[in-house]
Amino acid sequence: MQALEEQFTAFTERFTRLKKEAEKVFVGQSELVEHVLICLFCRGHVLLEGLPGLGKTLLVKTLSNILDLKFGRIQCTPDLMPADVIGTNMLIEDSGGIQRFEFQPGPIFANIILVDEINRTTPKTQSAFLEAMQEQRVTVLGKNHILEEPFLLLATQNPIELEGTYPLPEAQLDRFFFKLKIAYPTFEELSRIVDLTTAEETPEVGRVLNRRELREMSLLARKIKIAEDVKHYALKIVLATHPDSPEAVEPVKKYVGYGASPRAAQSMILAAKVKALTEGRYNVAYEDFQSIAAAALRHRILLNFEGDVARISSDDVVAEILSQIRPK
Question: Could you say which architecture CATH assigns to the domain 1-223?
Answer without folding.
Answer: 3-Layer(aba) Sandwich (3.40)
